[in-house]
Amino acid sequence: MRWKNRPTDVSAEHFKWLLKQWNDLGDQDRVKINAANRAKQRDTHTCRPKSFARIHENLKNANEEKKEPSLVEMFRATRKRVSSPA
């Protein structure tokens, strides 16, 4: 089933390796553990593809005195919820 749905840009050899990885029980256990750990996170960043460096620079330039933003300001700026376009 999965072989029929193989993307054309993935070589047959690489796809065989991926299938082996996906079917490995050790990997499946690790995936479950990682998913559980991600679910525990409370304060994930919400800045999407915008890098922290860009956010830092924008905050610095928005300040009249061109001061470096504090860690608190960076934390708030990168965790601010923005409504996504529908």
Describe the structure.
- This protein is mainly α and about 90 residues long.
- It has helices at about 10-25, 25-40, 50-60, 70-80.
- The longest helix is centred in the middle third of the chain and has 16 residues, at about 25-40.
- It is elongated, with a radius of gyration of 21 Å.
- The model has no long low-confidence stretch (mean pLDDT about 85).
Key features of this structure:
mainly alpha; 86 residues; 4 helices
| Number of helical segments with 4 or more residues | 4
Say how many strands there are: 0
Summed over residues and divided by their number, the pLDDT gives a mean of 87
Please mark out the parts with pLDDT under 50 across 5 or more consecutive residues, or reply none. Answer: none
Gyration radius over CA:
21 Å
**Major pleated sheet:** none
How large is the share of residues in beta strands? under 5%
Helix content: 40-55%
Elements, N to C (H/E): HHHH
State the end-to-end CA separation: 34 Å
Structural class: mainly alpha
Shape: elongated
